[in-house]
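Can anyone check this?
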Amino acid sequence: MEITVIRPGMLTTVQDLGRCGHRALGVSPGGAMDPFALRMANLLVGNDGNTAGLEMTLAGAEFEFGADTLVAVAGADMGGLESRRPHRVKAGERVKFGPAKQGCRTYLAVAGGFQIKSLLGGCGTDLRSKFGGHAGRALLAGDVLEVHDVKRDFTGVWFADQSMFPNYSASPVIRVVVGAEAAEFSGGISRPEFTVSAKSDRMGIRLDGAKFARNGSRQLISSAVNPGTIQVPPDGEPIVLMADAQTIGGYPRIAHVISADLPLLAQLKPGDKVRFTNVKIAAAHQVWRERERNFGLLAQGLHMKFQ
C-alpha cells in the first residue's frame, strides 16, 4: 500500500523510538521527540509502539492513501483527525492537517507501519547526518511512502482515556533531577519561568530568561549527555538537550529532565513558557514505572479491539 505526500508541512519526518546502543560511536539516539505520542498512535492502530510513524512539526501535511487502512494521531492538535482513537481511511481519500492549534508535534501512525529500512537498529530520520527515514531527509511533495500490507479493522466505538496522556501545556512545570555540576550554580534550576527560544530544534530546547551565573571557571572534560540533560553554556542561557542531541558535551550539566516529562518539552513552541522543579531519582523511577504499566494495560486491553 502507498501513501503519497501531497503537501509536506513545515517539517515532517519518519521517526520511531530511536537507535539504542551506538552512543559510544557518537550516534545520537534520535527518534520521536515525543515518544509517548508516537507509542500511543501506534497502539491505537494495533502496531507495536516502536513502529515507524510520521512526526509533523508546527504545521501539518496532507496525504493521499492508496488503499483502505487504519490510522491514528496523537500529540499536538493540528486538526484533520480526532486524536485518542483509530480512524478508517478509504482508498483515494486525502487526510489534511493544518497549523498546530495546541502543542508543536503530531504523530501519524498507519496500521502495519511504514516500510523503512532499519539502519543501526532504527528507522528514524537523522536530519543532521542525513540518514535513516525516507532518503535521510524531511518529506517533500510527491514523495511516496510504502506501508506494510496489513488488513486490520477494529470493533466498537472507543477512545483512549484522556487521563493516560501527559498534561500537555504551553506553560508546564518540568520535573528534573540534580545534574553533575549543579553545585556550580547558586539557586539551582528552580527559577522563575523561562521562554522557549525560536532557535530551538530537535537537538535542543533553548531557553530565554534569567541567566545562570557559574561559580568559578574550571575547565570540564567532555562527558556523556543524554536527551533531557540541561547544559549551561558561557552565555548563561540553558539548553535542554533533546532527541537529536550530541552524545558528549563540555558545558556544565545543571539538571536532567526525567524521561516521563520529555514529551511535555517536545510539545513546546517558540514563545511558550516553562518552569522546573527538583525531584528525587526514586520519584522519577516511580513515574516511569507507572507510565510503562499503563502502556502495558492499554496494549492488553486493545488486543481484543482489533480484527
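Reply from J.R.: I decoded it. The CA atoms of residues 215 and 290 lie 38 Å apart.
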